Protein 1
Amino acid sequence: MTTSTAKTRVKTPAKSAYWAGVRDGAPFILMAIPFATLFGVIATDAGLTLAQAMGFTVLVIAGAAQFAALQLMVENASIAFVLLAALAVNLRMAMYSASLVPYLGAAPLWQRACIAYLNFDQTYITSIARYEARPEMTVSDRVAYFLGVATPITPFWFGMTLVGVVAGQAIPDAWALDFIMPIMFLAMVAPMVKSLAHVAAAAMSVSVALALVNMPAGTGLLIAAGAAMLTGALVEMWMERRAQ
Amino acid sequence: MTYSAAEIWLIIAIMGIGTFLIRFSFLGLIGDRAMPAFVLRLLRYTPVAVLPGMVAPLVLWPAATDGVFDPVRMAAAVATVLIGIWTRNVLWAILGGAATLYALMGLSALL
């Protein structure tokens, strides 16, 4: 009891929100290490210089799109096609951006710009789950929390790309680290399934995404996500009407 | 790869700017202006609408097995989801899923 009051006196709320974010973001280091290393290795194999590989990772900072672009570059696709495909992979983040508006829209523009730069799957899902669970958070607490989540993963993402470029050796396949990513994403989203509407949305997302898996980079997922959001909203309205 | 250094930098720069603009889009332009109720309702389902669809093909057709269905990875995915829903805790779900993955991988190596 005394320790907790002492803590609140020392730490301002925004600071403790930041550290809560750091704690919740720490497990993603596990995910950043194999994938960033792999990116460094593949980028070097493909013929990118150290500066280009690092420029990619720092400026784009979006794993899936980086891998997609690199794959197409190795195949000597046209520049326009590389850009279109890689940006299509990132379009889901426009949905993330929109769904953060109710929570972060009131933050100063420069803070929203920082969050936009750091808005990738891990930071987004972790933060939105916290915002939903704690509607009483202030806007500055929310910003601090988001930056906290990004703090452990970002340096590892950059640093391990560098290690991949320099060491040129990916983590052996036998470690099955390929599957750490699906496990982490599922672990992030499962606790957010709170109602029948969420179950329906998730089921729609999976079935449409699987049905459209052969569509070009990322576009099937966009359609699946749109259909799933609509499903969630409609089921929610139907449940509200039934409850009345 | 046959691009010149300038072309590679062009790809990197446009991807960087484009990705930032995608992420900034709504958050930057709408700010604290109110959004229609139905849009807010849709947006509440963003995480459960995007992630399951993103992961599903990776679970059913893992790249590591060249797209061949792998019961071990499937079981790990199911365990992760169940533990996540049951405990409502991300960390327990990750640990449970990883433990299932490695335990079953060990087991199938022995058999």
Protein 2
Amino acid sequence: MNAYVGTPTSRVDGRAKVTGAAKYAGEFAADRLLHGFVVAATIPRGRIARLDTSEALRVEGVVDVLTHAHRPPLADKDEAWKDEVAPEKGSPFRPLYDDRINFNGQPIALVVAEDWETAKFAATRVRVEYDQEAFATDLESERGKAARVDQPHKPRGDAAAALTRAAVQHEADYVMPSEHHNPMELYATTAVWDGNGKLTVYDKTQGVQNVQKFLCSVFGRKRDDIRVVSPYVGGAFGSGLRPQYQVVLATLAAVALKRSVRVVLTRRQMYGLGYRPMTIEHVALGASPDGTLDAVTHEAIAVTSRFEDFSRNDTGWADQLYKSPNSRFSHKLVELDVSTPCDMRAPGAATGVCALECAMDELAVALKLDPIELRLKCYSERDQSEDLPYTSKQLRQCYARGAEAFGWDRRTPAPRSMHDGKDLVGWGMATGVWEALQMPVAVRIVLTANGHAEVSCAASDIGTGTYTIVAQVAADALGLPIENISVRLADSTLPQAPVEGGSWMAASSAHAVLGAAEDIRQELARLAKALPGSQLADLDATKVTLVDGMIASNDPNGAAVSIADVMRHSKLERIEKEKLNQFAEDKSHARNTHSAVFAEVKVDEQLGVIRVTRVVSAVAAGRILNTKTGRSQIMGGVVWGIGMALHEETMMDHRFGRIMNADIAEYHVPVNADIHDIDVIFVDEPDDRINRLGVKGLGEIGIVGVPAAIANAVYHATGKRVRRFPITLDKLLD
Amino acid sequence: MADLTDQIPERIPINLVVNGARRTLEVAPWTTLLDALRDRLELTGTKKGCDHGQCGACTVLIDGRRVNSCLTLAVMKDGAEITTIEGLARDGMLHPLQQAFIDHDAFQCGYCTPGQICSAAGLLAEGRARDADEIRELMSGNLCRCGAYPNIVAAIEQAMSRS
């Protein structure tokens, strides 16, 4: 039954990706394709006083220059611009809508030409004058204007009073910078003009149906007019959850010119999209001398734009991890003249849990307790916010297995006490936590008499392995070799799926596959029973298995007949079933994934250079559908955590309200030489309550806790506590 | 000024040997080898990730050496032999590096992968990398945002040991 689920199956799309055959959004060919190049605003706030496109239009090969004053109609109501991931409050950004400038890097014109180089050149000939207005882009100087938007969890007890009387207190600000996703693929759309007003839009997105509905509402089109396709996505990490402006511009130009248009953003222009918002995390912990917590407060103050309130849960996580009778959490926003932030890998948790776990380390130091011991003393068996038990929580096992693999018992607690030659060595650890969500997803399976099955769904695979796990689950459920399964994803005409994000797609798509396969099985059983002289005439149709191309009774002595024979005798070439997944409504349990992360750093104190030489991440995330791709997801999360801890920071020049390091040379991401040993351990976590397969999802949990483990290791190595991320060498040399 | 800006440069004929096949095309002097491959020759396996030589996604082999094709003007390479990711497999058989990348799951989204593999092929030909540390160092011009680095190193080690 489980020939594939739970095994290290290689990616089914691997061959396409290693041969260059996999096509990404900006690579689809079209007849008489035009190329658009974006002109972006160079002020953060004001109005376009004059926009002169005449010089650009004179360049040979330029077809048109679209601007707010020269474009086809766009929807004029906010509701039309709200995609399924849009913040509740606010007015979504509308590219080329009017003369308002709301952020630096905002698109103000699209030059469309016969080739890309010409469009790019002509874009330098668009002349703009602005009426600039006063602006603010600095979270720290505007901190006083923070307004509360959210109280992630209800307060419990009286945290303020408990903090005051706590024997041991720790209170600090942890400053997390803005970060940009920087997927390797540039944001791109190829809008193919099919004629008669119909468009096929190849877009870089995490949700084709989200983009499809958005385009239909923005352009006032019928559902059948626009099809959105995105078979391969060159990374997104949250940046592709909402439709990005290039898809509007490419579609706008195609509609205006009745021709196919491709728009590819430059790396620099991608810094005008969403980002992880800079957040000041204020954490206060109060404890008894024995290490039991009395009070936790966590207040986050984060950036948002002036036109939309973006916020995620940074602060509630202590309620899930650490037992404390008193707690209080709040999330505040400061509106600045910037683009709207968006989800980025483990939004909220990556930053908030980093602050919490650094604070826990500081508390452990103050209490003279081992950091794991402190966490075990406060270990919460229940989600305290709703006072619920967990469907499963093997975090204790994560601590134990991770510590053992890392060799934590050989750690000497005093800072600066471990060395490797002239390098200081530091060992740090932290906890990770994320949600185990599941969403409505439908899957269609077409089984053909030759023993092949096509499984299709609108879900995206952004590198997460959806193609592969869908094929694995289908192969097992249909009793076919995985080579006989073909998977089609990310086409808006396929069965429904939400955006791929939040770590929900594995569980959601797998159960939709199971449901559709079950319908196929029942249909086959019904047909098998009905055949004249059937060996399976007495069969209970609910008690059969599909295995090795046969329909077999679950009774070990029962009969089995070939699926191909049943279909042939029934004169059926294909059986098609579509099914929406169904999860039992169960609010009686909390659903989370957990991890324990251990990091070793080596610090050259003279140069301040920090290397992360080892990371052990022990993860409890239910059943792992594919141990190979699953390990890769966690490993990728660890690499992201190393980037968060040591490298990544979007730097704004507040005098101009402009990002200074808007490329991937000056915005540092980890390179191969930055990454050393990463050991991923999946802790056994059976969970028969969360869903049939016991799957929880892996996309986010890998990053959570990693930056804190590294920061804590840097403290252990050097005795310096850096609370302003990333921990760059200048902060150690101070 | 204005009357100068409406001129775009003349196209120049060049010959390239791409994946063993001779290709003749006319390109403007400002066209990079990367754009010539992707837009003119429809070899989209070579990727554009930054267009500034910062990410390595556009790595191809020119006369056997790994080069960022985004920093190379096509007209500079008249007569050169170019191997892209599409030219590595022979007769349907994957190049040992391609197979090793699949075996070790050395990619997720796959966008940096052609550049990684071409760069690794160049690295093997250079014969400079002797161990994992040297592979890491000499592969650091190829960014992988999915963070597959340890698997990339393992894949290259596998291909090295078998070559």
Protein 3
Amino acid sequence: MLNLQQYDSLGAALRDALERWPDEICLIEADRERENCRLTYRQFRDAASPLAKWLQARGFNAGDCVAIIMTNQSKWLISAYAILHGGGVLVPLDYKLSAPEQIELLAHSKANVLVTEHHLWRAIRQSDQFQGLQSLTVLVTEAPAQADLAGAHRWEESKADGTPDFIPRGRQDVACIVYSSGTGGQPKGCMLTHENYLEQCISLTQLFPFWPGVRYLSILPTNHAIDFMVGFIGPFVCGATVIHLRTLRPEFVRGAFSRYRITYVSLVPLVLKNLEKGLRLKFDEIPPGRRRMLDRLVAVNRFLTRRRPKLWLSRLLLQQVHEAFGGELRAIFVGGAFMDPATIQFFYDLGIQVANGYGLTEAGTAITLNDFNPFRADTVGRPLPGMEIKIVDSDAEGVGQVAVRSKTVMAGYLDDPELTSETVVDGWLMTGDLGRIDSTGHLQLLGRVKNMIVTEGGKNVYPEDIENAFEGLNVKELCVFAANFIWRERSMGGEELIIVLRAESGHEIDAGLVQELDRRNQRLPDSKRISGYVVWDEDFPRTASMKIKRPVLAEAIRLRRDRARSVVKL
Amino acid sequence: MNTPEQTLDEILTLAAGHFKVSREELRPDDDFFKKLKIDSLQALELLTRLEQHFSVELPDYEMQGVSDFRTLAERIQARL
């Protein structure tokens, strides 16, 4: 591994990695059972340099912002390296956002270059908000030969001869602007510095090292903070191999584990649960005699690994299970959302380590991670090296808001000093999550103090961001809440959104209105849908500037309404 | 080649069969996540089933932003 303490920027570290392991395979792009490309570190550099030079020839300079909206594929990483080499700032945007949402974030970030895929570019161009993007330089990958690109450039042809200048950046310069949420409302663009990433990488690789020969399976999109770190920066600065799979379909994911003998993979809880479901179904098909044998082996493995994992032993005892994962899997990283401890325990009992952790975009990637010393399914692990955690305003049981201080905490929110000063107080990042630290130093998460939910797919959803979907509804006032924000739950599971409706005076919330509410709700992406409504009979408390005082309203509802009886399901 | 109506009808029949619901319960503009009580990975399962039936390859992104049978049918029809 490179000694990252000696580096000032991601661009410099990646540049040296490409020189250090020229003949190692750094990147494979697979699509189903096909392999689209396989690049050594030298070939990767040779693919990125002409693009970096092309950008520089067009005046691209240090600090310029480049947005990437792509599924996880090789051109994502090649483009990212070209940008970092040239001193640019990456703006990785979620390709699953709608085109208007992407356009809103492109405008907010002030990106002057966009790299995207043809089908995504088509959707952006068809959006009503597209006119605002005219000054953007756009590079489009995989466009059909006859496609009208409306002034965009073909990525594959965006090349210039010569060696691009390497533009040095300092540790405190911004490397990426990552949106933790905020579409439709208040965009939250986390400015993450080169130091944030370098320190996070040092910290993570102490627990889970990479080296030449390690193969990381990337199925999460690279804009996801976890994949960006453990599916790009981490493996690259260690000479390891990243395998991009351009489909999430379980049958091809399973095939990729075996074909590439995967060492590490990152998953969101939804996918891990799907893997568990598949395994349980397979186990149920085993004839009773062999099933009893399997159950005994699992019990033996559980007993022998109760203090710490013994991978060699688990692979021996449960060979067929491990072979199904390629035989060389060392750990599955899972994060981005609440993970059911029973699922993690299920895998651990099979000898498959699920490294569950806790992190926020605002703090880099991960703050805590299960170190398996010993394994604890009921917590999100201990703080990573270099992370300080404290519990603020704790109650008698030691439960309070989790605060974090480390070199991985962001520089702030782009163009929002007010929100930054509310979120980072005296160097401590106020996470908005409720937790407690137990006697062994493990963090247990127990709920949220902030008004938001996280879906099983790892998406942060802020209620205020979806209120505009219900604008114009025939009510006097409306407000969307995370139900757990009103009725505090000591749980991270079962999160849902609800809408509070205040009828026009003299009117009621009738069937027609509920029908309209439901119709609009159905048009929202699955993750943003409300699950029910509450009727409220008082005017909402508001600030002098007429903003709803959400915590005050939430408390009033909590005091006067019972959750089970007042939430009408849609 | 199928007409758009045939494609839509076949999708509804296949979805009903795959997720074991009555064909009569499904309507073209239904939200299939809600109606079939499925998540995004199960929606990809359906896509695989549709690929087999229509003998066409459908990238995952064809499901992106799609939640009703009619739009799904339009996407598939464009590839037939």
